[in-house]
């Protein structure tokens, strides 16, 4: 998983941002979460994403809350359906691709609700 060309390109900050979309971000995070605990995956993802946005000259595009939110949501979906490969996981949890995906983590008063394992 961690040797996939998308993961390697992400970690080496040599991706074309025009070709690296939300689904690709999710794939890298999925690879991390398959290989390591959530806490380690978060640390690794944040480290390399920050390096990437710095190299691209857009450090303002890094948003810690959004990044953590998506990794927590992805981890939650993976725990609900642990045997699924990436494409099957997205098919089973289409909210991961929705623009308002992180809204699923909030109640009507804006409080975050996450079931930590």
How would you sum up this structure in a few lines?
The protein is 54% helix and 0% strand. With 117 residues, the chain is an all-alpha fold.
Write the layout of secondary structure elements.
Blueprint lengths: L4 H7 L10 H14 L2 H18 L8 H17 L5 H7 L25
What does this 3D model show about the protein?
It is a single chain. The chain is mainly alpha-helical. It has one domain (5-105). It has 5 helices and no strands. The protein has helices at 5-11, 22-35, 38-55, 64-80, 86-92. The protein is globular and about 35 Å long.
The string of secondary-structure elements, in order, is HHHHH
Number of domains: 1
Computed over alpha carbons, the radius of gyration is: 14 Å
Give the integer mean of the pLDDT values.
89
Shape category: globular
Number of helices: 5
Find the count of extended strands (DSSP E, 2+ residues): 0
What class would the helix/strand composition place it in? mainly alpha
What kind of sheet is the major sheet? none
Distance separating the two termini: 23 Å
Q: How helical, in percent, are the residues? A: 40-55%
Report low-confidence residues grouped into runs of 5 or more: none
Tell me the β content.
under 5%
């Amino acid at each position: 998983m961690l040797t996939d060309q998308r993961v390697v390109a992400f970690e080496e900050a040599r991706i074309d941002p025009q070709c690296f979309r939300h689904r690709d971000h999710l794939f890298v995070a999925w690879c991390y979460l398959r290989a390591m605990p959530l806490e380690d995956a978060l640390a690794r993802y944040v480290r390399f994403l920050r390096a990437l946005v710095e190299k691209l000259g857009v450090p303002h595009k890094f948003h810690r809350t959004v990044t953590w939110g998506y990794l927590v949501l992805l981890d939650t979906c993976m725990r609900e359906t642990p045997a699924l490969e990436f494409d099957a996981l997205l098919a089973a949890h289409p909210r991961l691709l929705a623009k308002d995906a992180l809204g699923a983590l909030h109640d009507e008063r804006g409080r975050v609700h996450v079931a930590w394992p």
